[in-house]
Amino acid sequence: MRIYDGSPRQDYEEVLRSIGAFLDQREMREILLTEAPDGFIVQGLVGTAAGLGDLSDVHFDIEKETYTFLDDDIARFIEEGVARRRGGAPAPDHLQAGPYEKALRIIGRYIDQQKPRDIFLLEQDGSYIVRLLMATRAGARHVLAEFTSDELHSLVTAGYTWRADGSPAPAEQRRSG
Fold it and tell me: Is 107 helix (H, G, I), strand (E, B) or coil?
C-alpha cells in the first residue's frame, strides 16, 4: 500500500500475507507475482474436478488463472485478514493460515527490510525466487534472493516469536545473490 501518490509501497509483509490468504482459499499452486504501478498481478495453477457425473470418472484439470489486485482490493484483503486474526476464538480450519499466507508473510518481511522499488517473485514446489529492483547511486539494479521450502519452514516457525518482540529476521538464514 502507498502512504501517498508517488511513494514507495509500504508493508510488503501484510500485503503479501493477504494475497497469500487469497491464494490459499483458491488452492492455487506454482505462483508468479509481479508488482504493477497500481497493485499486483498474480498467476498460478488451479486444479478443477471434471467428470461425467459418476465419481469413478472424475479427473482433475489444471488451469492457469490470472488475477489483478489493485491497491483498493489489497486494502480490503488486509482488513479482512486482520479481522479474521483478531476474532479471539480459534478460526475454523478453512480460515486457518495456509502455506501461502505463512510463506508470503515471511518473504514480505524480508522485502520490507530491503526497501525495494519493485518486486517480482516466482514459486515452484514451495521454494521461491524473489527479484527486487533496488535504487542505487548509479541508478537501479536487480537483486535476487532464494527461499527454499526448508528455509521458509524454519523462518515461519521463528516468525511466531517476531510478532511478540518485533525482532528482525535472522540475517544468517538469508542468502542473496
Answer: helix
